[in-house]
Amino acid sequence: MVSHDSRKMAAVQWRFRGRKYEEELQVRRLEATPVEFGEYHPLKPIMVTDTKTRRGARKGSTSSSSSSSSSAAATVDPLSSMLDGTDPLSMFAAASQTPAMSHSVSAGDLGRKRGEKEEQALGLDFEPWAGKRAEILARFTTTEKLSINLFMGADKANAQSPGSSAVSEKVRTRLEELDDLEEGSQRELLNLSQQDYANRIEELNQSLKEAWASDQKVKALKIVIQCSKLLSDTAVIQFYPSKFVLITDILDTFGRLVYDRIWSMCSEPRPLSDSFTVDDVNDTAKETCLNWFFKIASIRELLPRLYVEAAILKCNRFLNKSGIQETLTRLTAMVRGIGDPLVGAYTRAYLCRVGMEVAPHVKESLNRNFFDLLGTFRQINSESVQNQLVMQRVELPEYLTLYTPAINWILQCIAYRAPEVLLTEMIERCKRLGNNPLLLNSVMRAFRPEFVAARATDFIGMIKDCDESNFPKHLLFGSLGRSLSCADPPESERLTILNEAWKVITKVRSPRDYINCAEIWVEFTCRHFTKREVNTVLADIIRHMTPDRAFEDAYTQLQSVIRRILTYFNDFSVLFSMERFLPFLDMFQKDSVRVEVCRSIMEVFLRHQLEPTRDPVILNAMLHICKTMHDSVNALTLEDEKRSLASLIIGFIRMVSFGRDFEQQLSFCVEARATFCNLEPVLMQLIHMVNQLAMETRRVMKGSHSRKTAAFVRACAAYSFITIPSLSSIFSRLNLYLLSGQVALANQCLSQADAFLKAAVSLLPEVPRSISVEGKLRSSESYLLDFISNFIGTLLVVPDHPEHGVLYLVRGLLNMVQDYVWEENSDAKVRIYICAVPLLAAMSQETYLYSIPKMDSNETLYGGDPKFLSEISKLCEALIGQILDHLKVLGQEEQYTRRQGSVAFSLFGVLLAHGDLRNNKLNQLAVNLWNLSHKHGYCDTRVSVRTLESIKHHAQHADMAHLSDMVPRLALQSRT
Fold this sequence. Notes:
Blueprint: H1 4-7, H2 21-28, H3 68-74, H4 78-83, H5 88-96, H6 99-103, H7 107-120, H8 129-139, E1 146-151, H9 166-179, E2 186-192, H10 194-213, H11 217-229, H12 240-265, H13 283-297, H14 302-311, H15 323-334, H16 341-358, H17 364-375, H18 383-392, H19 396-401, H20 404-415, H21 420-432, H22 437-446, H23 449-454, H24 456-464, H25 473-484, H26 494-505, H27 511-528, H28 531-545, H29 555-568, H30 572-575, H31 581-585, H32 591-608, H33 616-631, H34 639-654, H35 662-675, H36 680-701, H37 706-723, H38 730-746, H39 750-763, E3 770-773, E4 776-779, H40 781-795, H41 808-819, H42 828-843, H43 858-862, H44 866-891, H45 897-914, H46 920-934, H47 941-955, H48 963-966
Helix pairs in contact: 7-12, 8-12, 10-11, 10-12, 11-12, 11-14, 12-13, 12-14, 14-16, 15-16, 15-17, 16-17, 16-20, 17-20, 20-22, 21-22, 22-25, 24-25, 25-27, 26-27, 27-28, 27-29, 29-32, 32-33, 32-34, 33-34, 34-36, 35-36, 35-37, 36-37, 36-38, 37-38, 38-39, 38-40, 39-41, 40-42, 42-44, 42-45, 44-45, 45-46
C-alpha cells in the first residue's frame, strides 16, 4: 500500500533559493583555536591519576593512595603497549620462563649452545665450512654411475641373562658385534646416480639418528665406521670432493651425539659451565668418554679409525686438559700412513676443520698438516696415481683441481688472522717448490685480499713462471682477480696488472673458462679505470662469446658482468656512450634472461637518475631497453609481471623532460605511445603527462603567442582523444575522458572539451553490470555512481553549445541514466537524480560557485534569462517527480522501508540546502520527506538531531526565519 505521507507528496513548482556564496563562507567559517605544540595528539596515551584509596581490598592488602606516576603505569593504554613490544604472547612467553623451566632444558640443547659459543670464537670474518659445502657439491659433479658398499655385520639377538652377569654379558655382546664388522653381511648398491648417492647417504644419516635415539649405540657406530670406509674409494675420482662433504656430514652428526650424551651425564646436580675443567666432570662421564675412545681404537682399518676419532675430538675435554692438542698431533702423524695423496689431502682437511672448531688457538697441527701435504705432491706423479687417471680418463689438470677445496680450507685455517709476514713465508715456499701452481692458487685465495693486493705484481711474476701444462694460468689469474676485486693494489701498478692479466685471459680458447675468468676481472677494470678500458673488455668478451653462440651457455656469467658494470657506472650518459654496451646486451637472446637484464638496468637507472634528462643517448638506449621489456608481454604473461614491467617503464617516462620545449615533449609521448601500446598503465601515464603538458603550456606562456599555445593544446587534446579508446578498462576511459575534458575547459578549448564530455556520456551505456577488481568480480554500480557525481560537478562550468539547445549535456547525461539497465532493486538512478538537483540549483544562481578564468559559463551567456531559469525549473520538477514516484514504489513493500527512508532523507537534505522553503508547497514537501524518513525508525538519530540543531541555528538569520515555523513539524520517531 502507498503510505499516506507519500500520497501527500504531490508535484509542486520548484523554486530555487538564492545563494550568496561569499557571505555564506564568511558566516560558516570555522574559528581557529590555537593549540600549543605537543599539547595534544590523537595517539598520545591517556594518563589517569587515581587519588583515592582503593576500597574493598583483600585482607592483608597494603594498597594505599597511588601517585600519578604509579597510576599511570597501572593504566596501560592498549595502543601504547603494542608500540613498546609488550604484546600478550611475548608477556606469556616471558612469564613462562621460570627458574624451574630453565633447569629442564635438555643437556643436548646445552651442549649445542655451548658448541655454538665456541665456534663463535672464530669470529664472523672466518668463512665457515657450511659456506663452502654447497659450492663443492655444485662444482664437483659426475655423470658416472656410483656405488655404495657396506659391511653392516650380522644381526644377533641381544638377550641378556638375569642376575649379576647382565653387565658382563652386555659388554661381551658389544665386543662381539664390533669384531663382526668385517665378517658380516655385505650390502652393495650399484649404478647410482649422483642424486641417488646423496639420497642414500642422507638415509644413512637418518638411520644413525634413529639408532642413537633407540639406544642402539653399537649400530650407530657401525654406520659411522662403514661410511668412513667409503672415503677410501676413488673409483669415480671427479666426485670425490662431493663424497667427502656428504660423508663428513654423518661424522659431524655422530660427533655431536656422542658429545651431547657425555655432557648430559654431567648435568647433575647442575649443568657444566662454559669454562668447565676436567675436575668438574664426574667419574661416570669420564668412564663413558674413555669407553668411546677404546671402542674407536679397536677399529682395525686406519682410515675409519682416524676419521671417527677426529669426529669426537671435542670429547677429549672431558678427560684431560691437553687431550685435544695431543690427539691432533697423533692423528696428524697417522695421516702419513694413507697411500692415496687425494684421500690424504681431504683427511688432513677434515682434521683441520674439527681442530678449528674445538681448538682454533692450536696452530701447530695446522702447520704440520700443511707441510706434510706439500711433501705428498711428489706422489701425484707416481705410477699408481698416473695409472688411476688413465683408467678413469682424467687429465692431470682436472685431477689437480680436485685438491683445491682441501688445500684452500687448510690454508684458510692457517691464514686466519695471521700476520702479513706469514704470506711472505708462503711465497718463499712456493718459489722453493718451483712455483707450484696448485699451492700458489690456494695461497692467493686463503690470505687477506689486502695482503695479496699489495704483492699483486710479485704474484703475477710467479704466475708467469708456472708450468701451465698441469694447472691453467687463467685459474691463477682468476684467484688473483678475486682478491683484487676486494682490495686495491698500488695505483702505479694497476694498468700493468690489468694488461698482464688480460694477455693471458684473452688467449683462453674455451669459452667457458674464458668467461669465468673475464667475469672476475671486469670488476677490477670497472673499479679502477674509465669507460675506454671497460669498452675494450666488453669488445673482447663479445669476440670470444659470439662464435658458435657460446653466450647461450654463459648467461649467468654475462649477467654478472652487467651487474658489476652497473655497480660502478651509475652515470648513464657515460654508460651508454660505450660503443660495445648495447651490442653486449644483444647476446642475451633468451627472452626470460633478456628481460631480467633489462629490468636490472631499469632498476639501477631509476635508483640513480635523480634529475630529469633529455640526453638523446640516454633516451634512445632506454627506449630500446624498455621496448625489449614491453615486447616480452604476451597473452601468457601474468598480471603481476605486466604491472611490474609497466611500473619500470612509467618510471623512465617520468624522468624524461625537455624543459620548455613542449613540442619535443609531445613528440616523445607520441613515440612512446607507439612503442608501449600493449601496456595500459603506460598509456594512461602518457595521457596524464600530456594533460599536464597542456596545463603547463598555458601557465608558462601566460597569453603570449596565444595562437601557437592554443594549437599546441589542441594537439594535446587530440593525442588524448586518439589514445583513450585503446584502453580496455571502461572506467579508465571514462575517467580520462572527464579529466581531458576538464583540461580542455581550463585551456578554453571548448570544442575539444565538448567532444571529450560527449564521448564520456555516449560510453555510459557500455558500462557492464560487474567488473574485475583485483581478480574478483564486483558490482560496477558504486564506481559508476562516483564517476557520474564527478561528471555532474564539471557540468556547472560547461557552456551550452549554440546549436544543441539549453542544457543539452545535462539532458544527455540524464537520458543515459534513464535508459541504463541498473541492478534490480537498486536506488542508483534516483541517487543520481538527487545529485543532479544541486547542479541545477547552482546553475540558477546569478553568480556560480566556481568558474574558469577567461571562459564564459552559462551565467554569462544567459545572464539570468527567465526562459533559461524556467527550463531549469522544469527539469528539476521532472527529476523530483521521478524521485517521488520511486518513493511510492518503495512504500508498497515493507522490506523496502529502510531504502525508502534513506532516499527520502537524502532528498530532504537537498530541499533544505537548495530549495526556497518559503514556498508553502515546497515547505510541506520537505516536512513530509522528513516524516517519511523517520516513520519506520531507520534514520540515524544522531544525524537527525544534528540536522535539527543546524536548522534551528539557520532560522536565527533574518533571511531564513521561515525555518522556525518548520522545526515543530519535524518529529523524531523511533521504530515500533
